[in-house]
């Protein structure tokens, strides 16, 4: 099959998104919030996570911010589990399977601020489209929309489904935190 951007957009529009009805989250009791520790030692409390009833597959994502208050947003990328979660005010509001770098060009772990945002961006290094780009490093590592499929990888970036990328792009601001856990890191609380 010959790849085309138009075909890719049609595929993204028909991706199976698991709707997350209101009340479909696991809420933790006040004072007993799990804590996620970042590679730099900083800690985030988690008030609730999405209650995903089935594993999500490549190209799928879940998004539910219903009933979640306004507040600071941050992202946790778990390279070991090949997932990304978006949190707002301590509540997980989105989750997706991701693509990330290979041994030749790995995705760095650490804590990064969103340095820049661009709805449409083209990589000058790889001559590739990077829609809904959130730049994390000065040397080009970013989160951006990709054709997320099993067996694929990036050149160090975090690739996410286009529909999810659009939502993440709207949620995040310059300076917001992105935590990338190393491939040997631990997953989010309540996940197995």
Write the SSE topology:
Blueprint: H1 5-13, E1 25-27, E2 35-37, E3 43-45, E4 48-50, E5 61-63, E6 73-78, E7 83-88, E8 91-97, E9 110-113, E10 116-118, E11 122-123, E12 128-129, E13 133-135, E14 142-145, E15 158-160, H2 162-171, E16 177-181
H/E order of the elements? HEEEEEEEEEEEEEEEHE
Number of helices: 2
CATH topology: L,D-transpeptidase catalytic domain-like
User: Any idea what the radius of gyration is?
Assistant: 16 Å
How many structural domains are formed by the residues?
Answer: 1
CATH superfamily: L,D-transpeptidase catalytic domain-like
Shape: globular
Features:
L,D-transpeptidase catalytic domain-like; six-stranded mixed sheet; mainly beta; disordered N terminus; disordered C terminus; 31% strand; 192 residues; single chain; four-stranded mixed sheet; 10% helix
Describe the structure.
- A hairpin with a 4-residue loop joins strand 11 and strand 12.
- The protein has a single domain (5-181), classed as L,D-transpeptidase catalytic domain-like, CATH 2.40.440.
- It has 192 residues and is mainly β.
- 33% of the residues are buried.
- The chain is built from two helices and 16 strands.
């Amino acid at each position: 099959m010959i790849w085309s951007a138009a075909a890719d957009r049609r595929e993204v529009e028909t991706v199976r998104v698991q709707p997350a009805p209101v009340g479909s989250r696991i809420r933790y009791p006040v004072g007993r919030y799990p804590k996620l520790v970042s590679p730099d030692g900083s800690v985030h409390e988690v008030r609730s996570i999405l209650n995903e009833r089935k594993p999500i597959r490549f190209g799928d994502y879940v998004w539910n911010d219903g009933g979640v208050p306004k507040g600071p947003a941050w992202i946790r990328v778990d390279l070991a589990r090949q997932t990304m979660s978006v949190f707002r005010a301590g509540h997980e509001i989105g989750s997706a399977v991701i693509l990330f770098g290979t041994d030749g060009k790995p995705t760095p772990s650490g804590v990064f601020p969103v340095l820049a945002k661009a709805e449409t961006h083209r990589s000058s290094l790889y001559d590739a489209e990077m829609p809904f780009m959130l730049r994390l490093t000065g040397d080009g590592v970013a989160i951006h929309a990709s054709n997320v499929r099993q067996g694929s990888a990036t050149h160090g970036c975090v690739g996410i489904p286009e529909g999810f990328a659009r939502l993440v792009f709207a949620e995040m601001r310059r300076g917001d935190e992105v935590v990338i856990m190393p491939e040997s890191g631990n997953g989010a609380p309540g996940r197995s």
